[in-house]
Amino acid sequence: YQRRVHGIQAKMTEKNMLRSRIVKAAQEQGEKARVFSIMSYMTHSNLAVEENEEKRNIRLAHEKRKYQYLKKWVANERMEAFTATLNLIFATIEYECNYDNLRKGNHEVPMASRILISITSLFTLYFLLVRKWYKYQWGEAVKQDVTNYKILGHRTIISESFFKPSFFVEIIITLCQPLPYNDMRFVLFAGYPSLGYEFTLCELLYVLMFLKLYIILRYIISSSIYTNSDAKFLCLVKYDFPANARYAFKCLTKEYPMTFALSLIFTTIFLLSVTMRVFERPYQRQKLLVYGENGYQDFDRLENAIWCTIITMTTVGYGDFYPSTLGARICESACCIWGGVVTTIMIVVMINFLSLTKNQKKAFYDLTISNPASIVIGSFFYYLRARNNAYSLYGDAKYGYSSLEKRIVEFMNAKKRAEIVAADIITNEEQIARKLEAKITSVESKLKTILDSLEKENNTKPKEDSKVEGKTMEEEKLKDKGETKQPLCLIQIIFFIHN
What we know:
Layout: H1 2-29, H2 32-103, H3 112-143, H4 146-152, H5 165-175, E1 185-190, E2 195-200, H6 201-208, H7 213-222, H8 229-237, H9 245-255, H10 257-291, H11 302-313, H12 326-354, H13 358-388, H14 394-421, H15 428-460, H16 473-481, H17 485-498
Antiparallel strand pairs: 1-2
Helix pairs in contact: 1-2, 2-3, 2-7, 3-5, 7-9, 9-10, 10-11, 10-12, 11-12, 13-14, 15-17
């Protein structure tokens, strides 16, 4: 909004400066009629400027109102996540503190904690409704934006409806809580032989309260750069899709894959363990009272439930802890299915984490080859020294030659390994460079042959005091033409170097 205001002010100053320059130039030329016409044009244009300023003021007010809608939307989403977190904390404290009293038949449970839970749930519902309202108003403001409408044509900018199925689902999730002054109990049967145990409605509602983590997770994701005002405007105007929490979640998984995978694993393990513990504790308590410690599994301790969840997700299954109730078995089945998904995610993340980039592969290729290459060069010089040393024995030269052969074999093996790792970085340019290197090598060999022939000619040429007398008839003819054999060879050398 501030950038647009500054842009409009800059355009106004430019127009005013242009008008003043026109009037000043006309006055200097002394054209009174033209000055009069310019002034009359300015009077008419001032009316248009006033109309344009009025439109700009309306436009700026519209942008400011839209920005306020977005700001209040984000603020209410923050408060909704905060109250949902408090709601879960209070419900967990109430469950842990009052569980033993309910199992002993003490129906006079203090209801102050449940009233506090209800108050936080109502605040969460209030912020949910307000957030939804401001989100709807922001969508309507975007639809009325004339600039965006011209950019996008006749397409719908945002399809945001106030009454959507997801909205009612969020309301139901928000209202899930242990009800005050309600101690409804029902008897369930589990195990073999079948054993009845009591399970309360508040415990079931406490399990359903963990769905509110969706609200907290949505706020954490929405706090990223992928859902701010600039991202929402860019995605809607240029790419025609909303920058919502789903889009931000996909972007964060691409940007931080390892953090995403570890957070997903530990969060699901904790949630499934707590849910299994809530369903299994009453049955195991009743089993302890009826059968004693025969077959009793201590699910009162959270670490045992976490151990059972991890063993199930990794498909190990020791059998020391296993669920017996229907709700716990549903959680265990979810652990089995989710374990395969988590394993696949971790494999993909670890492959991407351990894979080398293009520059890293190039560095690996160079470093893998450089050390064996230096060893080969050192062995070669050792062999030359042993061979050329007159005082050395024949065995030293023979040992140096065999060592050189081994080093060359090691170098070739290292080169093959490096080429396997860095096979995908050999581009067309590198292949062209290799072809050029081959051509340069062939040219160097030809140059070497020419230089060798020159040296042979210089060595076989007879040394005479009088050079004029030793020349043949052919050389005299070449001299008359201004040519010699040696410059011809130099021309060939220059030609090959040019190629």
